[in-house]
Structures are given as C-alpha cells and as structure tokens.
C-alpha cells in the first residue's frame, strides 16, 4: 500500500524543483532586461556626446534631435521591462519559499508519525514485558 504522506512529499518536492526553475528563469530574464537597459542608456549617452561634440555639424545635432525621443522611449521600455522582470524574480522567490515550507511541513508530519509509531512500539513492548512479569508471579 502506498503511503499518502510519501506521495505528498514527492509532489511537494517536485513543486519545489519547479519553483527553483522559475527562480532561475526569472533571474535570467531579469539579467537580460538589466543588460538591455544598460545598452540603451549607453546608446543615449554616446549619441548625446556625439551631438555635443565641438566638431558636430548641424546635421548631427538635427539627427540627434529627431532620434532623441526614440532613444528615450527605448530607455523607458527597457526600464519597464526590467522592473517587471524584477517583480517576477520576487514572485518566483516567494513561491520557492512557500514550496520549501510545504516540503518541511510534510517532512515534519512524516517524522511525527514515525515518532508516534516508535512510542507505540515501545508501549507494546512494555505491555508484553508487564504481562510476562504477571505470569511469572
């Protein structure tokens, strides 16, 4: 007969493994988002320096003025994505914490049951010893 607590423990451990994968995946996505934000900010800085250079002509300044709203919009998108990815990391970590707690609860139930069974076995043995003593008297 299958032990329901052991089956539950297997399921809880699988959920914990899934939660670990989600943390890893969300961390990867967050790092990618941070990298893209960094690149967009560097791009804006580079374009600003190029347009601000003393040898930059009117064409470079005009091109920068036309491009600026595109660059700023990209930074805004990257910041939003990075913020969302950070939230996903937080949610995945919280889910992992809950999954770990669920595993611990089942492990404690199993340990508690084992202790109760051991105490019951000791009581049975003591009862047998007591019965043997009574018979011997």
Automatic annotation (TrEMBL):
Keywords: Bacterial flagellum biogenesis, Bacterial flagellum protein export, Cell membrane, Cell projection, Chemotaxis, Cilium, Flagellum, Membrane, Protein transport, Transport
Record Pfam families: FliJ
Major site of localization recorded for this protein: membrane
Biological processes, Gene Ontology terms: bacterial-type flagellum organization; bacterial-type flagellum-dependent cell motility; chemotaxis; protein transport
GO cellular component terms given for this protein: bacterial-type flagellum; plasma membrane
Topology with respect to the bilayer: Peripheral membrane protein
Highest taxon of the lineage: Bacteria
Keyword Transferase set for record: no
Keyword flag Transport: yes
UniProt-annotated location(s): Cell membrane
Family, per entry: Belongs to the FliJ family.
Protein name per Swiss-Prot or TrEMBL: Flagellar FliJ protein
């Amino acid at each position: 007969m299958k032990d329901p607590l052991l089956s539950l423990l297997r399921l809880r451990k699988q959920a914990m493994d899934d939660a670990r994968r989600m943390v890893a995946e969300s961390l990867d996505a967050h790092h990618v988002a941070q990298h893209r934000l960094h690149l967009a900010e560097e791009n804006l800085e580079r374009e600003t320096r190029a347009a601000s250079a003393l040898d930059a002509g009117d064409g470079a300044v005009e091109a920068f003025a036309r491009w600026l709203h595109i660059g700023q919009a990209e930074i805004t998108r990257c910041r939003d994505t990075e913020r969302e990815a950070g939230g996903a990391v937080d949610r995945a970590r919280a889910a992992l914490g809950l999954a770990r707690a669920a595993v611990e609860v089942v492990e404690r139930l199993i340990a508690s049951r084992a202790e109760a069974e051991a105490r019951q076995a000791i009581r049975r043995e003591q009862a047998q010893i007591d019965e043997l003593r009574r018979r011997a008297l």
